[in-house]
Amino acid sequence: MGKAGGRNQNQVSVSAVTKVRLKYLHCFTDRHGQARYYFRYRGQQWPLPAPHSEGFATAYDALLAGINARRNVEYMPGSLAWAIEKFLDSPLYNEKAKTTKKNYRRALDHLRRGWGTGLLNDLQPRHVRVIRNEIAKRSTTDADIAMTLISAMWEFAIENGIELDADPTHGVKRVHKVENEHEPWPPELIERFMREARPSLRWAIKLALYTGQRRSDLVKMKWSQFDGEFIEVRQQKTGALVSVPCHKALRAELESVPRTADTILVGERGGPLTAGSLGALIARQLREMGVSGYSIHGLRKNAAVELANAGCDAFEIAAITGHRTVQMVQHYAKRHDQRRRARSAMDKWEAQSGKPQYRRGN
Questions:
Q1: pLDDT tens figures, 294-348
Q2: Which domain holds residue 220?
Q3: Tally of domains in the chain
Q4: Distance between CA 83 and CA 117 in Å, rounded?
Q5: Is 222 helix (H, G, I), strand (E, B) or coil?
Q6: In angstroms, rounded to a whole number, what is the distance separating the alpha carbons of residues 165 and 14?
Q7: Where are the alpha helices (DSSP H) in 137-198?
């Protein structure tokens, strides 16, 4: 991160009469001729009000106390690590789902270790791109999460009294590219999977297809949550309690499948699965079949599309899938909507009598 230029490196006298000098207080004149004051310590700087102005003594004493207490400078107001610490104590982080918090914490720790001592005021888009590219060497997903978090902390810092310019992540492209990973499965792929996969995986696909739930919720479904008509699940991501009526094709199997564990889905050794292990097992089976570009999450879209095909509106679909917004439901079911509109357009075209008339010059 850049450092402001043109500083007077001598410590500032607070009073021209008494010649009192305050440690770590420095001043420089900006291009507009205005004096600006900073608390500088070991290469880091924090803006201060002008000496004798309201708030100067409080701000200076707080910074000096931090130095005297040998507190790490990266936790001092205005730095990236300061914003991270504040963010970790806020509802913006603590009210997230467990998996989301885990992903956020991994990215935040990486940001703090690598760039925590930098000042938010100095952060520019070019610095953000450097951070993004460095993290992307390890994980493109983490790089994009880091960009999202920098933007969130930028707004958070402003809300907490730090004066900042425009969000430096605006216009910085994300690097993680997912190609068809969450596409709905074609009917022929589902049929082939059900023929070739192991019974436990076929059962997982059927549960995903007929409930429309995320893999993190599929692995936590218990037999005790099935009452013969509904499966009740508290979604891990949203915290919403969803009661999913059993499709008749699913209910018949639920009533006949052996109950060998508390959870409906079990692993190869008969124990419970995690969301990650379920996704990995499905991915491995697809690779063995020579198929790429699909994941178990795509079956959530299959469920939304099938519900839309059956004439369900967005609110009815959300009652099954647990989506919080109509916009997200529409995103999941957009394929149905596009096909329906395209079919309607073609039907109208085909119904047009006579040959199309074209105007000369068109």
A1: 889 889 888 888 888 888 888 888 888 877 666 666 666 665 556 666 666 777 7
A2: 187-342
A3: 3
A4: 11
A5: strand
A6: 29
A7: 140-159, 187-196
